[in-house]
Amino acid sequence: MPSDPILEIRNVSYAIGGRPILRDISLTVHEGETVVLLGRSGSGKTTLLKAVNGLVHPNSGEIRFEGKPALEWDPIRLRRRMGYVIQDAGLFPHWTVAANIGLVPRLENWNPEKVASRVESLLRDVGLEPAEFEGRYPRQLSGGQKQRVGIARALAADPPLLLLDEPFAALDPITRFDLQRQFLEIRRSGETETGGATAAAKSALFVTHDVREALMLGSRVALLKDGAMDVLATPAEFLAARTPEALAFLASLEDHWRPHE
Amino acid sequence: MNSRLASEILALSLEHLELVAITIGIAAAVALPGAVLLARRARTRRWVVGFANIAQTIPSLALFGFLLPLPLIGGIGKRTAIVALCLYALLPILRNSLVGILGVDATVRESAVAMGMTQRQILWQVELPLAVPSIVAGLRIATVATIGTATIAAAIGGGGLGVFIFRGISMVDTPTVLAGAIPAAVMALLADEGLEWIERRLSPA
């Protein structure tokens, strides 16, 4: 592997009321890598993401972030070092786009000019013209625009790790493809001029149920089935995977549906 | 209408308004911090809201009767009236504030937690601002109801427009009843309209 691990998940299990949600999951995310958690609804992928963020606490196993056990982190500090994007963006409806994006920098007491210039450059990065969008409220945005703002908000304080929970699932196919390409671009370019010292690409843990998206965006794909790791492979290797669950997902790729002649 | 009646209507209207203002002031001062404290305590919340619900079901005249013999908060006069009116005003303010705070979209609260906001920051920067329209709605309901109920305060010497109404009833004189009822109704309508306007102005979305 190319670089240091940013996130290590070791033998993590989690159950609610005797019902296992995660079974002995181990996974390492290296710097600059995007690992996609792929699986059906209920496979445990979102729960795993929440465990990384400290929103749920595993019953056994260990999660280490930047080399330090998650339990030793102050949860507030831990979360501010991880950008978080969810399906319907979860933007604060009473704040403008600029206030939403500037949240974590403000919480971290950046000075207002620095926050403002950061917000502006992030809006450009996600393809929104700052002058047009800064002052808008979330209700004045389309689904795709909300998601762009959500991503900009997650990137705001330059966190070393991004957590994304089906961020594009609710979008129309054209907007989704556009945002997927933009996500690749943001990751590859790493940080722009205002980003601070690290020029490295972002690490990301990306949850999806869309195998196409997983293969397009992932450096590696982690397929979960019933809370257990089924396949962990690069996209190229994943295409050759032969577990029943992997075959079921791959079959949806080969379904070239055509209208009747 | 002679000028003596007009000036008495004005004086009793002002007294009525004073009863309502003090009542809503005290009820809000108790219910708003109460809602903030109860928002994170589901079990206590059920007990307190249950108690406030029961207080609400006591007929107002009976409640005034219960309070009369009590020391400190009882007896004849304004203080007893205000205590009783507060008991009625508490519930709508408390319940609406709780609805507003607890009604914040789960994804919004989840992302607030996930972004690394503390519980205090979530309360002050997210939940309370989003709850403001609902809180104002509670104040509106409580104010309008108190304007009506306060007319009964005259029965225990609380003053206000109820003085006309009780006098009119005992004299079997409809115009005197109306001299109390009409200003009270107008006051309630104005309060309703005014607070509804504020409610709309403060709605974020």
Brief summary:
The complex is a heterodimer of chains A (261) and B (205). Chain A has 261 residues and is α/β, with parallel strands linked by helices.
Any chance you could write out the topology, listing elements then pairs?
The complex is a heterodimer of chains A (261) and B (205).
Chain A: E1 5-16, E2 19-30, E3 34-38, H1 45-53, E4 60-65, E5 68-69, H2 75-80, E6 82-85, H3 97-101, H4 103-107, H5 112-125, H6 130-133, H7 143-155, E7 161-165, H8 173-189, E8 203-208, H9 211-217, E9 220-225, E10 228-233, H10 235-239, H11 244-254
Chain B: H1 3-38, H2 42-57, H3 60-67, H4 78-102, H5 106-114, H6 119-149, H7 162-171, H8 174-202
**Principal-axes shape call of chain A:** globular
CATH third-tier fold name of chain B = MetI-like fold
- Which structural class do the helices and strands of chain A define? alpha/beta
CATH-defined fold name of the largest domain in chain A: Rossmann fold
| Domains of chain A, number | 2
Number of domains of chain B: 1
- Based on the coordinates given, report the CATH architecture of chain B: Orthogonal Bundle
- End-to-end CA span of chain A: 49 Å
> Quick check: average pLDDT of chain A?
88
* CATH class wording of the largest domain in chain A: Alpha Beta
Quickly count the helices of chain A: 11
Strand content of chain B: under 5%
Number of beta strands of chain B: 0
Major sheet of chain A, described briefly?
Answer: 6 strands, mixed
Average of per-residue pLDDT values of chain B = 88
Please give the most extensive interface between any two protein chains, plus how many residues each contributes: A-B, 25 and 18 residues
From the spread of the alpha carbons, the general shape of chain B counts as elongated
Percent range for β-strand residues of chain A: 15-25%
CATH class wording of chain B: Mainly Alpha
